[in-house]
Design goal:
Oligomer: single chain
Helix content: 25-40%
CATH class of the largest domain: Alpha Beta
Number of helices: 20
Radius of gyration: 23 Å
Distance between the termini: 43 Å
Length: 568
């Protein structure tokens, strides 16, 4: 942040090219200083999410906990541990482990000459701060902020009231949360916990509702609410001693969980898990509204990356306004920490925090001259006077277009600047994109990017979303029957919902222009949008990354800034 404004944000993985990169983010810090044009000595304050000085250097540490927990169970049952797909991923992740493991936060700061005063902030307070200071436009009105994830600083959930410049926690819990349950079922099903939960969410609508409800009933024994305070998530009477830390009580719960789901059909289990997540979230939100009378809701924490849950919350009659902080997993806690740091430094007459969106990273063409030299024998570079018109025409011609333009998006979603774009009315395009680059799981849908002003034409929009819409793909919508064929490649084939990015001309001027031109030619106010990356790799950063991915895929054409790039 510079003064009151967020001027740059990036994730370490985009620079290291290691997916979900852990460790101290020195590459990100250097890139931020380079882009903004300031020196280390000019930094006034360093704000850190989480009150621990420990730095995670490898994802293997978390996976080891899962292997140990379920290894004990499997050893007891099968008299020998059974390998899992996630275990194979663990061994691969160890190879990428930071060689400097063991250093703490203070040691890293000193080593990199980051001598400004640093301050740490509570995990869930950072989640709440990101949502409140980043999304609440009128702070004279009270907002209710819900944060939930699988754990941080001894809590798995918390509820806050935001009013004026204050954030006050009114409830919290350290229980085994629905987010924790989601992570454990993800592991049990052979996927990567804390990463692949979205795959279960995508699979859930394919389950028969009757079978999903049976699974939900089984899972309900592991999640509950406090008998005296419905804002506090608590485990049911069967597991009163369980908290989200390790110990015999939690091991007993997980033993029963594993036993309960061992022979469940995979789609039924996913469906039941999603039903439980939805039911718990709805009860929690409704309890908060009933207790406080506040009907403006903000959502944050990794649990609320679940766009199907968010959809149901947006449809609650008592919810007047709802929004979810973009990419609201732990990566976005950097925003919350910075916002809290600014609040501590600000004076009475200081301006409000300005957060204008997620496209605040590295410029796509920062390395275009390097790319021209490096790839001159492999691709053609054509500078186009009106690149947006050219892209729209290529899309109409059924070409798959990769776009790397403008400032990089922060977070898990590609929002048009690092995207693969296509005509949305043909399911064959999904197979073409998967064959060309994505290699996505067969049940997972792609998503459309639509003109914000035409959202009503495409989908049913609840009143709570009419102010903010969905510029960061944090909500799904029920697609109108008359539009389903027009954007069939961008909707979930089981429940006919779509995770729509609403494209606002002020937030995304160039992307809005492309879709507007496509709409003028086709009558469809949306295009297919998926992230520009090879399967299992981070989204591309700049020109060289984009061309490298282009050459290692079967995409039709690449646009980098004003350049149209084709193979020789």
């Amino acid at each position: 942040m510079k003064d009151n404004k967020v001027v740059f944000a990036i994730q370490e993985e985009r620079l290291s090219r290691i997916n979900v990169q852990p460790g101290f983010p020195i590459l990100s810090i250097r890139e931020a200083l380079r882009t903004v044009g300031v020196g280390i000595e000019q930094i006034e304050k360093i704000c850190v999410s989480g009150i621990s000085s420990e730095i995670p250097h490898s994802r293997s540490d978390e996976l080891e906990k899962f292997h140990e927990i379920y290894g004990q169970i499997k050893n007891k049952w099968f008299h020998g541990e059974q390998p899992t797909a996630a275990e194979d991923l663990l061994h691969k992740s160890k190879a990428a482990c930071d060689k400097q493991a063991g250093k703490n936060l203070e040691e890293y700061l000193k080593e990199n000459k980051l001598c400004a005063k640093h301050e740490v902030f509570d995990h869930h307070l950072c989640h709440a701060a990101s949502a409140y200071y980043g999304l609440a436009k009128d702070k004279s009105q009270r907002h209710l902020i819900f944060s939930m994830d699988a754990g941080g600083n001894e809590k798995t959930s918390a509820v806050f009231i935001g009013h004026g410049n204050r954030l006050d926690e009114i409830a919290s819990s350290d229980s085994f949360s629905p987010a924790s349950l989601y992570a454990h079922i993800t592991y049990i099903m052979g996927f990567m916990p804390y990463e692949h939960e979205y795959k279960l969410m995508g699979l859930a609508p394919y389950a028969h509702i009757k079978d999903a409800k049976v699974a939900e009933n089984v899972l309900q024994q592991f999640i509950g609410f406090d008998g005296e305070n419905p804002l506090v998530l608590n485990n049911t009477s069967q597991y009163p001693g369980v908290r989200n830390s390790e110990g015999p009580h939690k091991q007993a719960l997980l033993h029963d969980l594993f036993k309960s789901v061992l022979n469940m059909r995979f789609d039924s289990l996913s469906g039941g898990l999603q039903l439980l997540a939805e039911d718990t979230a709805i009860r929690w939100i409704q309890a908060g509204i009933e207790k406080t009378g506040i009907k403006k809701i903000l959502l944050t924490g990794g649990f609320f990356m679940n766009v199907k849950v968010n959809k149901l919350i947006s449809e609650l009659p008592d919810v007047e306004f709802v929004n979810a902080f973009p990419s609201c997993g732990d990566e976005s806690n950097a925003f919350g920490a910075a916002f809290l740091g600014y609040q501590k430094l600000r004076k009475k007459d200081s301006p409000e925090i300005e957060f204008e969106g997620c496209c605040i990273g590295t410029e796509a063409t920062f390395d275009i001259e390097e790319a021209k030299s490096k790839y001159k024998d492999k691709v053609n570079f054509e500078k186009v006077e009106n690149i947006n018109e050219k892209i729209a025409g290529l899309l109409v011609g059924r070409k798959i277009v990769a776009r790397c333009s403008g400032k990089m998006e922060f977070g898990a979603r590609a929002l048009g600047n690092r995207s693969i774009l296509a005509y949305p009315d043909d399911m064959k395009i999904v197979n073409r994109i998967n064959a060309a680059i994505k290699k996505r799981d067969f049940w997972m849908p792609f998503a459309p990017a639509a003109l914000e002003e035409k959202l009503d034409m495409i989908a049913e929009v609840p009143p709570s979303l009419r102010e903010c819409h969905s510029p960061y793909m944090m909500f799904t919508f029920k697609v109108r029957p008359g539009m389903q064929d027009s954007i069939i490649a961008g909707i979930h084939q089981a429940d006919k919902t779509a995770r729509i990015q609403t494209v606002n001309p002020e937030i995304y001027p160039e992307f809005h222009d492309i879709i507007s031109r496509f709409y003028a030619k086709t009558g469809i106010p949306a295009i297919l949008n998926t992230s520009f990356n090879l399967h299992g790799h981070p989204i591309v950063l700049g020109s060289c990354d984009a061309i490298d991915v282009f050459l290692n895929s079967e995409l039709d054409v690449l646009a980098v800034g004003d350049y149209l790039i084709t193979r020789k």
